[in-house]
């Protein structure tokens, strides 16, 4: 997801008043400030070429862009770069007197609404948020997904449908699988109808299920399965193992443990496998990170698992998949380790909630 991270906020100011306001914000948040050469202050970065060119570069490099400028100027400069609400960064606009902070783009998925509220609180300004769910003081499916780092099949249509149902005062249930139920109170679920059991549903028009599982009981209402990315896979393999072999064994592991493939969060291995074609292609296919660990990092947990002298002589550590999965999941391994066709795969469940 493209949820805004505080460390990746680019701030643009075009006037002396904007620079002064930017300096106030720098004291409260780790923002990178850009301005023109003639307004440059210590710690600020000059526009590279022009204001528009600098914004174009920042649009793909930062998860949030904040402008102290007129809304019209901002709309014109970002218009050619707009692509997709699931990918575009958060864009927030404010006036140089800090009277209004406006969530302009990627309010939910990009985190612009949340950033708008944070900036307004810092400045004592009025937050301007126009998304229908927020205006009606309701949660939104895409915001919940972003907070959970979750996804679902047909995400775009599901978000549109569920959010419209919520603002239309239809009854949308929300059920949490056992892994997530204890943490449900952390999330904004206003407007959803709590569901404790799938065997005894209240009267509903639709149901959202938060789960890692690959299947759910058949129900008579529309069901939207929201899958948090929590499953990590430590993988070791012989050099140049075919992608098809590794992919098939990973699918086998997920099916065996009843995990939805969408729950896969990361693949990990030893640093020496950083250019292993099958592992690189697998992470690209799933659009997930490839986490690499040094021999020293893996060796610290090697004693927990069976070791292979052949692997030790080749890589410098007697086990790869299990220590890697252990590190990625904070020791929360699940299922058996597969050892087939020169490939070892161990799954873990990240404790991030």
TrEMBL record:
<dbReference type="GO" id="GO:0009236">
    <property type="term" value="P:cobalamin biosynthetic process"/>
</dbReference>
<dbReference type="InterPro" id="IPR021744">
    <property type="entry name" value="CbiG_N"/>
</dbReference>
<feature type="domain" description="Cobalamin synthesis G N-terminal">
    <location>
        <begin position="54"/>
        <end position="134"/>
    </location>
</feature>
<feature type="domain" description="Cobalamin biosynthesis central region">
    <location>
        <begin position="140"/>
        <end position="218"/>
    </location>
</feature>
<dbReference type="InterPro" id="IPR036518">
    <property type="entry name" value="CobE/GbiG_C_sf"/>
</dbReference>
<protein>
    <submittedName>
        <fullName>CbiG family cobalamin biosynthesis protein</fullName>
    </submittedName>
</protein>
<dbReference type="Pfam" id="PF01890">
    <property type="entry name" value="CbiG_C"/>
</dbReference>
<dbReference type="InterPro" id="IPR021745">
    <property type="entry name" value="CbiG_mid"/>
</dbReference>
<dbReference type="InterPro" id="IPR052553">
    <property type="entry name" value="CbiG_hydrolase"/>
</dbReference>
<feature type="domain" description="CobE/GbiG C-terminal">
    <location>
        <begin position="231"/>
        <end position="347"/>
    </location>
</feature>
<dbReference type="InterPro" id="IPR002750">
    <property type="entry name" value="CobE/GbiG_C"/>
</dbReference>
<dbReference type="InterPro" id="IPR038029">
    <property type="entry name" value="GbiG_N_sf"/>
</dbReference>
<dbReference type="Pfam" id="PF11760">
    <property type="entry name" value="CbiG_N"/>
</dbReference>
<dbReference type="Pfam" id="PF11761">
    <property type="entry name" value="CbiG_mid"/>
</dbReference>
